[in-house]
Structure formats: structure tokens, C-alpha cells
Write a structure and sequence with these properties.
The complex is a heterodimer of chains A (104) and B (158).
Chain A (H helix, E strand, L loop, with lengths): L2 H30 L19 E4 L2 E9 L18 E7 L5 E7 L1
Antiparallel strand pairs in A: 1-2, 2-4, 3-4
Chain B lengths: L1 H9 L1 H24 L1 H10 L5 H24 L3 H24 L20 H19 L17
Classes of the chains: A alpha+beta (104), B mainly alpha (158).
Chain lengths: 104, 158
């Protein structure tokens, strides 16, 4: 295979990968506009299967839900972070308040 | 002294080591980001340097750029050009880390792993690590004058 053909093949490969990534990014942009804002609107309802939320417009990944909040973690309410995560009180499907942990 | 430094930087083994380290690091760094692009996008948006939409496009494209440039550096395609691009990326990362650190402790910098580390990473450590990668890049950017090593494809021309 000539050098020119190799370069064209490489260019096509790189271009198609970037095109695929751009399309995936575009779909995530559309998806992110539907994420629940959990910090600015008081305590809001968040379904248990939620993967991402927004806190003051910033996308955060949901790590876990818990029922209780230890005293030592009370200062870690989003957007303030402690050791890689922060919490937000949310309303669960049962109607009670749960603690949702999001990544920082 | 200058001649000694130049001779050291031009030594084929030094160049080869720099290529393997720089290329390997960027290939390794891209894997988790390609596997979990949404998680990486959420980390990039948290830096709050770029507007959200631009940050998302950047986050989806960056890992592929890292992967291709890493492969190019290791395989010997456009080594100098790739090293310049990777060094520029390292500089961008350093500036981003410094800006983010002004806002508070860095949870997960998104440098290598996407999963939360559980502990905040030291800014000094992150910068020191980036300086090492930058040095590897500079070794490859530095004009090559010495004879190459004859180790199959790894010793291709610059």
C-alpha cells in the first residue's frame, strides 16, 4: 500500500471516530438539558434510578442514596464538597426525604 | 554543559523512553474516559472553565485525541507534532487544575480514572506529575540529531 493511501485511510479513520464522538456529545447535550436541578429549587423529587443531576447548573453524577446523614458530613452539602462527594436532601418515590450523594 | 544536556536529550534511549512514557500515559488516560464519556463530561463541566455545551463536546472528543496522539507517539508517526500537541494538552490541564483549585479542593480531577477516588488529590502532586509529562514532551520536541536505535518500528525517524 502506498504512503498516500495509508495517510488517507488514517485520516478517514480519525475523522469517523471524531464524527462518532461529536454525535454522542450532541445527544448528551440534549440529554443534559433534562437533568433535575437539585440545589436551586429546594428539596425536589428525584427517582431512584437517576444517574445525573444538576446542582446550580453543574452536572453531577449520582453516586448513591442513603437514609441517614452522619454529623461529620453535615458540612458537605452541595455545592460544597468533602472527599470527592457532596450530599443533597431529595424526596424519594415513597415521599420521604432521603440523602442523595453526588460526585464532586 | 549545554552540549552535555543536548547530547543527553538527543540520546536515542532517552527519546525512546520519553515516547513510551508519554504515549503510554495518554493511552492509559484515554481508556476510562472513552468507556465512560458521560461521567467524564460531568467532571469537565464541573471545572466551570468552558460553557457547558462546549465542555461536553470537549469531553467527548478529548479522549480520542489523547488515544490517537498516544498511539502516534509510540508507533513513531508524526512524533514531534504529536509531542507538541500532547505538551500543549498537558499545559492546558495544568492551567485547568490551577483554576479549579482556586474554587476549592479537587475531588476527582478526571485525569486518569473517572470513578470517584474518595479522597481529594493534592494539587501539588497533580502539577508535579504534569511537569514530568511535560518534560517527556519537551524531550521529543527537542530537535533530534543523534542516530536512532534500531529496534524495529519503535525506532522510526522523527
Amino acid at each position: 500500500m502506498s504512503k498516500k493511501i495509508k495517510y488517507v485511510a488514517l485520516f478517514c479513520l480519525v475523522s469517523s471516530v471524531f464524527l462518532y464522538a461529536a454525535i454522542a456529545a450532541n445527544s448528551f447535550v440534549n440529554e443534559s438539558s433534562r437533568y433535575i436541578e437539585v440545589c436551586a429549587n429546594g428539596i425536589v423529587y428525584v427517582p431512584a434510578n437517576t444517574k445525573f443531576v444538576k446542582c446550580y447548573g453543574v452536572i453531577r453524577k449520582v453516586i448513591r442514596f442513603s437514609d441517614v446523614l452522619t454529623e461529620s458530613m453535615e458540612d458537605c452539602r452541595c455545592p460544597k464538597c468533602c472527599d470527592g462527594d457532596c450530599y443533597v436532601p431529595v424526596i424519594s418515590e415513597m415521599g420521604d426525604i432521603r440523602i442523595m450523594w453526588a460526585s464532586c | 554543559m549545554k552540549a552535555k544536556i543536548a547530547a543527553f536529550l538527543n540520546h536515542s534511549l532517552v527519546k525512546l523512553s520519553a515516547r513510551l512514557i508519554l504515549g503510554g500515559v495518554f493511552i492509559y488516560a484515554s481508556i476510562d474516559k472513552i468507556a465512560y464519556p458521560k461521567e467524564f463530561a460531568s467532571i469537565v463541566t464541573r471545572y466551570q472553565i468552558l460553557p457547558e455545551k462546549l465542555a461536553i463536546y470537549f469531553a467527548f472528543l478529548l479522549p480520542w485525541v489523547e488515544l490517537f496522539l498516544g498511539i502516534f507517539v509510540i508507533l513513531g508517526f508524526f512524533v514531534r507534532e504529536s509531542a507538541i500537541s500532547l505538551s500543549f494538552l498537558v499545559l492546558v490541564f495544568m492551567i485547568a487544575i490551577l483554576i479549579r483549585s482556586l474554587a476549592g479542593p479537587i475531588g476527582n480531577c478526571g485525569c486518569f480514572s473517572i470513578t470517584p477516588s474518595g479522597t481529594s488529590q493534592s494539587i501539588a502532586f497533580l502539577i508535579f506529575r504534569d511537569v514530568l509529562f511535560l518534560l517527556c514532551g519537551l524531550v521529543l520536541i527537542f530537535p533530534h540529531k543523534a542516530k536512532n536505535l534500531h529496534i524495529s518500528f519503535l525506532s522510526q525517524r522523527y
